[in-house]
Amino acid sequence: MPAAVKNVSNTKRLPARIRLPWNDISTSIIPEFQAKFSYAFLVANECCKSIFSMLSQTDSPSRLVIGATAFLFDRNAENVGSDALREFSMTETIVARALTLDSGPGSATARLILAHGAGSGMSATILEVVSELLAERGVAVTRFEFQYMAQRRQGGSRRPPPPVEKLAAEFVVCLEEVRAGSARPQRIFIGGKSLGGRVASLIADRAFRDRHIEGLICLGYPFHPVGKPAQLRIAHLTELTCPTLIVQGVRDPFGSRGEVEAMPLSDRIRFHRAADGDHDLGPRGNSGFTRKQNLTAAADAVKSFMASLSDA
After folding, report:
1. Global confidence as pTM
2. Sign of the C-alpha dihedral computed for residues 171, 253, 215 and 165 taken in this order
3. How would you classify residue 264: left for phi > 0, otherwise alpha for psi between -120 and 50, otherwise beta?
4. How far apart are the first and last CA of the chain?
5. Superfamily name and number for 1-312
6. Which of the four pLDDT bands, split at 50, 70 and 90, describes residue 245?
């Protein structure tokens, strides 16, 4: 099933406040919030500037989604913002969500929020294929793009991704938006490919304790940098309490089967091994396995993992 791009190209559909010029917003709308919501004002100020910057720079506004951050405007000024955002020190982060892609049946009872890897955006082939396979299995998928990658699409620099703590706050925002925008109750799972899965794993325990998600799903977790097996990224995985599925290639250079099996990981983590798979779960040509087989098996494993939790 093809992914549905959320469309905001028709400015007539935008809320009146969004259509106002920046000066009008600054003089007629924001002051009424500023006195009461000092922290929220700072965040909203950056969000508005980010939104107008994106709309003015992109040649494809139909690909943009304005990420509403209304959840930051708590009913009480002293409670503005989420604990998870504060936990990751995100007061300097612009929390507008740039791009999202939704796929899967509208009647789906489970939804996976899926983030991309460090070098490829949400349109990466592996994410598109996995999203289609999960849609065939009745699972809805929301792919979203971190801001640094969205800026690359608009001609920005190809600097390395920002620190994972900063990306974690963006994931928190996306999770809140998906939960708030769901038309019907859905079982929510979070995860991602490589870096996206690592970022999801950083917020998983808190989100699970708050009953915002039911599980974590990682596609090719980067247990260590390539060629640097001593630089492990597993400190938080040793005591993880959120139910987790990691789909990992047997010969993944970011953590092969032999390497990972020797790591002291939480017993809440389950594994599905992609036969002869690399970091993208692809096998070698002479292995007797195919990429299609591995990705299909990965989708089956994700569906079974979700089902096992609903039966628990």
Report:
1. 0.70
2. negative
3. beta
4. 30
5. Alpha/Beta hydrolase fold, catalytic domain (3.40.50.1820)
6. very high
